[in-house]
Predict the structure of Glycoside hydrolase family 65 protein.
Amino acid sequence: MSKQMTRRDFALTNEELRLQETLFHTANGYIGVRGNFEEGYPEDFVSSRGQYINGVFDIADMKQAEQLYGFPNKKEVILNVADTQTIRLYLDGEEVTAFGQGVRELNRVLDMEKGTALRSFIWKSQKGEEVTVSYRRMTSFTLLPLFTIEVTIISHDFEGSVSIVSEHHGSAQNFVNPNDPRMAAEAEDYLSVAETRYDEEQQLSKITAVTKTSELSVQTLVFHDVSSQLELGLVEEDESVSVVYDGQLTVGVTIDFVKYSLFLDSRRYDLEKDGGSFVETVRQKPLNQWYQEQEEYLDKFWRQAELSVVGDPLLNESLNYSLYSLIQSAGKDGISNIAAKGLSGEGYEGHYFWDTEIYMMPFFTLTYPEIAAKLIEFRYTILEKARENARILGHKQGALFPWRTISGAESSGYYPSGTAQYHINSDIAYSIIQYYQATGDLDCLLRFGGEIVVETSRLWLDAGHYEGKRFVLNCMTGPDEYTCVVNNNYYTNLSVQYQLNWLVKLYPLFKEQKADFLDKLQVTDQEISDYESAAAAMYLPYSEEKQIHAQDDSFLEKPVLPINELPKQDFPLLLHYHPLYLYRHQVCKQADIVLAYFLHDEAFDTEAIQRGYDYYEKLTTHDSSLSSCIFSIVANQIGDVEKAYRYFEESSKIDITNSHHNTQDGIHAANMGGTYLGLVFGFAGLRIREDSLVLTPRLPQKWTGCHFSVNYQGSQLHIVINKEEIHVSMETGAPVNLTVYDERRILSQENDWKIPYRKER
Ligand code: BGC
């Protein structure tokens, strides 16, 4: 089945087009280009014409109404860099646009196997003659700075002149929406053009722009490859460059116009030298070869990340879109990470959150471990800034990772639901431990992960204290952002306990391996034994009366907010209620304890999970897109497969159906990872345990089965589940331990395993 997302004969409304800009964006983890129309939109349309480089940012003022000690007054923001998307087309002097009279067969296709986005339509001239115009875009996975647009014009019965104007703007402005806290509120010119050059011999424009504050530069190079009917005419050059190609179009002839853009930044490249060699590299091959390499890259990707359900084609479209979005979004160079909106828009200002570690990393850990390792390396590169951050917060030791950041500086302005979310520390540690268990990659642990786990553990010992025999963690915010700055958030305390116990367990290995960081950080046996004691004494609040885990010390004492009685238009509540009103009630924006039930399932018995789930489900609005997928997974844990399916359906289609009404600002990348989790960890019941991969499958009525591939301990496994049996085979690699339900075996290339599916459990 081909992996495509299509939109045909869609309405040309502003709302629909902004949504499509996001959905049809093209990205490769380094650059991302929104799916804007090359020819632009009518003047009264508000479009976010955007193109981004992962990790390239400027620093903006973040005014605090009261500048208390340690509040950041600057933040990092992703930049809308050079605009090379614009191409205008004129036939006999008439401008060709999708908005023209008589335009028909509007069509968009995102081809996730070829790695291209196509837009086409049939245009009619005033005389009634028709042409088909199509635009094919690609951001190359094999040459990360490369973005191409191929314009094809086919005449049905048009004969006359053609003129193509291709523009190159070296800077662009960020999008603003003062009424939405998830968007930037004020416009600023972050980039200014330092140099514009047009090289006549090479027919190449090069613009270098510099940021106002962060001292970064962005260089874009643009050149064209055109079919023989076109000739270069006028070139205009000031801050921008605009080139015109003229020619004649006749019936039976296809005009092909290719615009190559290269995006380079000073964090990764030498802008004096590298641009020229990239241009040479691109010119060495025809576009078709770049297309072919793209397809080969994705062929490998889909083999490694293969995932499909049987009996629900629509769902497969959103599953494919989710996985494709993840590979489009992930920084793969250790310098960058995965922004909450990937590279599809400016929502959350391009910041990296805990979303990466808890929601997206598992996908990479199990399908593309080399990318997961780079995401860990990224956290290592900002460890020093995390140490500085901890000092600002008054901690004498350890590191506290920023809640929102691009290059390490804390960029969250509202600390109760920002900086106070200390759990990002244990989330990062959790993802490192899971990565290690899934891959056995000791090298990554010794070079990056181990030091992060030690430094974040030190922070916990400094942030917490003993209250009698209990180790407590006060004044922190858990994942639920409708309950802020509390004592003993259950999720946080449990994750910290997990992290400390793991450090104790890994310590002998670190010693045996003579890990450099042990010396560097002067880790002592006493320190490790302090972690052991704190973990053993960790306080985990529980209500005897209600027989459930308490989200924190005071949560269960508050009145319940009857969310079912609130008007529909009040959601998301964060846009309609003062934060304090929400904090004073039992109401949850997203999975909090329920997330703990998933990540730390071994710490609970099923009855306790059931009671907690029933209680917290009634209080949760799912105003965050990070919620439904987790409720789906835990519904599976307690055996309510049909409920799991309902949540899963909801979460898997958030962007495709724009159900949160803000996909126009960018995809919900964490939810895309959550969709993967929902299938693989939810319905297939996969868990990465210390000495075995575990599967406990459950299938909803609607599906006849599902199948997927994972990489475990370097071996590639293929898992097919249907209502008769579970079949696990190994495609490559050495034997591994596998547990299905409660039976354990060694799986090897020679010995695959079929086990009957259990209907009732
Ligand atoms: C959620 C956070 C999340 C952030 C970015 C917020 O709405 O509450 O948990 O990290 O979005 O996705």
